[in-house]
Specification:
Layout: H1 2-18, E1 24-29, E2 36-45, E3 48-56, E4 82-90, E5 93-101, E6 106-116, E7 119-125, E8 132-139
Antiparallel strand pairs: 1-2, 1-8, 2-3, 3-4, 4-5, 5-6, 6-7, 7-8
Length: 141
């Protein structure tokens, strides 16, 4: 019985800690339709945060390429594309990196912050963060 309780406790702690991190899979939502557009995976590489597109829900866009991107992403498939790069932990947010918008090919400075265990705030901007756009991603189940 003690072994079972210990195992359950460890699983509970693991789950709780996992939901308190920016890392994992996140749903992006289309502003116009309110439906999930894609699934993004945020992961850690060399102590920094990165993210790539894991899934595109619109079958017509699944083979799309980043035509408007500059090198090195020019004409790469959007599915699998790394869109967040080089974010470093800074207190309660991750900043100092960039985000790529594959729709227009533009790269912005950005920061991300976990605002709830299942809600991630992403702010992309040019120059000062005052001049930018904020999106929220929901943790994928």
């Amino acid at each position: 019985m003690k072994k079972l309780l210990s195992t359950l406790f460890i699983l509970f702690i693991s789950f709780s800690m996992n939901s308190q991190t920016i890392f994992g899979k996140w749903n992006t939502v289309n502003d116009e339709t309110g439906e999930v557009d894609s699934v993004i995976e945020v992961y850690k590489k060399n102590g920094k945060a990165y993210a790539k597109i894991l899934q595109i829900n619109d079958p017509e866009k699944q083979k799309a390429i980043c035509e408007k991107c500059d090198a090195p992403n020019k004409d790469k498939p959007i599915l699998g594309l790394e869109i967040l790069t080089g974010l470093e932990k800074n207190d309660k947010e991750w900043s100092g990196g960039e985000i790529l918008d594959p729709r227009n090919g533009k790269v912005y400075k950005c920061y991300i912050k976990l605002v709830k265990p299942d809600k991630l705030k992403i702010r992309g901007y040019l120059g000062l963060s005052l001049f930018g756009k904020t999106k929220y991603w929901q943790r994928a189940k």
